[in-house]
Amino acid sequence: MNNFGASSYQKEEKKTVGEKSAKRKVASIKEIDSKATGVALSKTNPSFTFLVLAVLVLTISTVLLSGCTGQSDSPDAEQAGIEEPLEVNDKGVNEEEKSEEAATEKPAGPDPDALRAKLSITEDYRDSFVHGEKGAEFQKYIVLHDTEGEGSAAGVVDYWDSNGSGVAAHFIINKDGSIVQCVPLDAIAHHAGFGDTGHNEQYGVTDESRDDKEGTTSIGSDFADYGMNSYSVGIEMVHVGGSGDYPAAQLEALDGLIAYIDAYYGFESTIIDHKAWRTGNSDTSPEFANYLANYQDHRTHK
């Protein structure tokens, strides 16, 4: 073996010895670290060790469960205190608020024009029959009358106009159910006349300047109150007391006319007959008594 070869051999041997020495040092360090760890664990309180392991297991379980359910780690809008955007319709109205408003809205009442169209009404207005204004705020009663004659509604209107007294009702119903209107609903008509003294207070009406009182003549101190005329609608039925029953067509027309008046004003007026306002009046007749009770109870004759 030449010197070059010996020298190379020696170098290689030294390198091998150096590597082995380094490996021994690493092994020694690991052994020392292991021993140190073992000593540390051996010196740790067993309860503490168990607690650490339990927390570790719980953490791993939570992560696994979260992954199974596919839930996001981020808090939802409610937990984070963030309000969800309002859902609005095309008009920009929140649907929830719209539903609440709809629940509190009153349903629309009957259409007065449609109810009037179902009736056979002829208008025959006469200026002498109007005695002042009677807006909805003054409307309280519907007063029912008998004409105490067999003449037609049109003939009754002509008679009232010709005698100059200014007396008239708003409507007259013929036996066949046809109707003549000779005073507008929002005008005062002198159909009730004078009532018992004290009836103004009893019925909550007053004699006031809205009524021109033209054509009125006092009939005594026992019948001094005139307020009903300013707070009511008068309806006459062609009928003579004691002559028999009221025809079905006439009663059905009265049903419809009352429904129309209610719809026109948007509320139900109290129904009375003429003799309730003035003691001794004959109308309405005894044969109308059951019908009157029905009208006062449920606003139809049946």
Commentary on this structure:
The chain is an alpha/beta fold. The chain contains 9 helices and 6 strands. Strands 1-4-3-5-2-6 form a 6-stranded mixed sheet, sandwiched between helices. A hairpin with a 5-residue loop joins strand 3 and strand 4. The radius of gyration is 51 Å and the shape is elongated.
Given the C-alpha coordinates, what overall shape results?
elongated
Largest sheet: 6 strands, mixed
Give the number of helices.
9
SSE-based structural type: alpha/beta
Sequence of secondary-structure elements: HHHHEEHEEHEHEHH
How many strands appear in the DSSP assignment?
A: 6
Low-pLDDT runs: 1-18, 25-44, 67-75
> Strand arrangement, largest sheet?
1-4-3-5-2-6
Radius of gyration: 51 Å
* Beta-strand percentage range: 5-15%
Query: What is the mean predicted local confidence, pLDDT?
Result: 80
Distance between the termini: 143 Å
- Quaternary state reads single chain
Helix content: 40-55%
